[in-house]
Amino acid sequence: MTVSRLPLTALGLVLALAAGAGAPRAQQAPAQTNPLPTTTDPGAGPRSGEAPQPPLPEKAVPPAPPVAGARQTLVQAPGDPSDVDEVTLPAKPAVIISGNAKWDAAVPSLRDSFARIESDLAKAGIRAVGRPIAVFTRTDDDGFQYEAMIPIDQVPDPKPPGLPADLRFGTTPSGKALRFVHKGAYDEIDQTYETVTAYLDAKGIIVQDAFVEEYLTDLKSASDTGLEVNIFALPK
To answer: Are 172 and 210 in contact (CB under 8 A)?
Structure first.
């Protein structure tokens, strides 16, 4: 990792893409003055003395059912890698474990933390409903401290016996946030953060001293080019 992953206040990490003018609407086609004649036979009308028949109701199209077992993201609408979204993060119940790692071991450390949470949840019969999240609470040249969390259906009360003491319940980060999307290897995520820093510096936006990564695909290796990550920064 590079110096671009220093604490947000030190780097002035501040998100949002240059607010450009909205895309012009597509030009509508002019109305047809001579529409084509219909070739549909209208059929016979009601006979003399008969009341007209009401039209048959249109058959409602049911919404597509959710994918069984699919994990929810913090924001339902997907992000655009070429843009920045202003979103509102909901506070969702989550299981959390704290950790720290060197930058060159970021992916293995985060991956192992998520795997441990998943295993403990399964043993306790607690249902995970969201994608893995890492909140980076402190960073420097050598490494970082983080909170790994996975959203759950609800916090059990009381706490199930057998859960490790360092595994705790809490909520995911919430409030107004700016979302960037990183697609590509985790080894290259610093380039996305450099874009974030430059943009926010230009906008003069001050954010909290923590940034959030939500992993839309599984963390496999630092070189996995199929990785997709939502990066959130919460303005002060």
So the answer is: no
Q: Report the DSSP beta bridge partners of residue 130.
A: 72
**How many degrees, rounded to 5, is the angle at CA 69 between CA 68 and CA 75?**
105
Between CA 221 and CA 130 the distance in angstroms is: 21
In whole angstroms, what is the distance from residue 5 CA to residue 234 CA? 16
Global pTM exceeds 0.90:
no
- Give the C-alpha separation, 112 to 219, whole Å: 10
Q: Where are the alpha helices (DSSP H) in 27-170?
A: 106-124
- In tens, the pLDDT along 143-175 reads 999 999 999 999 998 888 888 989 999 999 999
Cβ atoms of 183 and 227 closer than 8 Å: yes
Starting at the earlier edge strand, list the strands of the sheet with 93-102.
85-89, 175-183, 228-235, 207-215, 133-139, 143-151, 93-102, 168-171
**Secondary structure E strands in 140-174:** 143-151, 168-171
Show the tokens assigned to 83: 């843009």
Q: Which amino acid is at 236?
A: K
